[in-house]
Design a protein that fits this description.
Helix content is 46%, strand content 15%. It has eleven helices and eight strands. The longest helix is centred in the first third of the chain and has 27 residues. The two termini are 29 Å apart. It is an alpha/beta fold and 360 residues long. The chain has two domains: 177 residues, Rossmann fold (3-Layer(aba) Sandwich), CATH 3.40.50; 135 residues, Rossmann fold, CATH 3.40.50.1400. The strands form two sheets. Strands 2-1-3-4 form a four-stranded parallel beta sheet, with helices on both faces. Strands 6-5-7-8 form a four-stranded parallel beta sheet, sandwiched between helices.
Length: 360
């Protein structure tokens, strides 16, 4: 059997009855280890109903919005999902990969998966199966867990593609993975890849991307802004380690580049709702920098493993506009690591370390 939807080319032609089993015993595929990459997700299209389905799933997640459903759901269903699909759809349309009919996040995640699959095949041969899923939208986590088990994966390594851990990203991806496992008659042993925010190879890949970008510029930026996706400040006070891990990533990047403190700063973007979020807010901080005379800046987004709506539209359009409106003159967005070879090598190294004891 081929998984035509995913394009993984998984075949069950070699499935056999176990030795000494009766002839009518269900056939079992040869044992292998599954490596399941997970990213946030993407709408199937940018039309109203595609956006509404996606936003409903995303904004109904209690890890993302933890207000009481009795208060939040009427507001979401009657007001937010009536209007927001139009504005969000317009934003997605502005960055959409029209040639492939999908969002950039989907295109990039497919490319990352293909490269990691090649590296794992070269390292482990047919003992592994590599695929990806999305927390929200398609392909769903449940469908990919089912496909892996059907293909003979008797162990699964689950890899949320978030360098820094946050309850609203890593934890909800893990939740969905465990929910998928709850539906399986025969649950395989599993491992969860921990955050890799301080991994030296990941930090080096980030630094290389900064160095390449700076080398291409005749006028170097006055400061590098590392913009991370924000979360409510309350989450930090409740024990979420995200803020601390973001700060450490910035510090390690600065040390790897050999820079002084004043050449780099940490900010947080994508604020939503009335409560205080982690600060400083990127959209306000870039304006403040421009007003203070820093007219040339570069922005990088170390919390995202792939470019998406928050980087291609929010940073490169909304945040750029805030900087230029305040008097900024040169705004450079440094793309996410995406399927860069150094990034793929870093992710593959993380995977190989976490496979030890299963595959060596």
């Amino acid at each position: 059997m081929l998984d035509a939807k995913s394009g993984t080319g998984v075949s069950l032609a070699d499935a056999r009855c176990p030795a000494h089993a009766p002839a009518d015993h269900p056939k079992i595929a040869p044992a292998k280890v599954g490596i399941l990459l997970a990213n946030l997700g993407t709408p199937d299209n940018y039309d109203y109903w595609s956006m509404r389905r996606y936003l409903n799933e995303f904004l109904s997640d209690r890890r993302v919005i933890d207000y009481s459903p009795w208060i939040w759901q009427p507001l979401l269903q009657l007001i937010i999902l009536t209007k927001r699909p139009f504005s969000s759809g317009a934003n997605y349309k502005s960055i959409w990969n029209h040639d492939k009919g999908e969002s950039p996040l989907m295109t990039i995640t497919k490319d990352q998966t293909a490269k990691i699959k090649d590296r794992m095949a070269a390292r482990y041969g047919s003992d592994v199966m590599v695929d990806f899923c999305m927390r929200y939208g398609n392909p769903s986590t449940e469908s990919k867990v089912r496909a892996m088990i059907e293909a003979g994966c008797q162990k699964i390594l689950f890899f949320p593609l978030y360098p820094q851990y946050a309850g609203a990203t890593s934890a909800t991806a893990n939740d969905q993975f465990f929910r998928a496992l709850m539906k399986e008659k025969w649950q395989p042993p599993v491992r969860i890849v921990p955050p890799y925010f301080d991994d030296p190879v990941y930090i080096d890949a980030l630094a290389q991307s900064v160095e390449r970008a700076y080398d291409r510029m005749e006028d170097k930026p006055d400061i590098l802004v590392t913009s991370y996706h924000g979360v409510p400040k309350r989450y930090l006070m409740e024990g979420d380690p995200y803020h601390c891990q973001c700060q450490k990533t910035t510090r390690l990047l600065k040390e790897r580049l050999g820079w002084e403190d004043e050449r780099i700063t940490t900010t947080f973007q994508s604020r939503f709702g009335p409560e205080e979020w982690l600060q400083p807010y990127t959209v306000e901080e870039v304006a403040r920098l421009a007003e203070q005379g820093k007219r040339k800046i570069a922005v990088i987004a170390p919390a995202f493993s792939a470019d998406c709506i928050e980087t291609l539209e929010e940073i490169n359009e909304e945040i750029r506009e805030s900087f230029e409106h305040a008097g900024g003159e040169q705004f450079t967005y440094i793309p996410c690591l995406n399927d860069d070879d150094a990034h793929v090598a870093a992710l593959s190294g993380v995977i190989e370390r976490n496979l030890k004891g299963w595959l060596d």
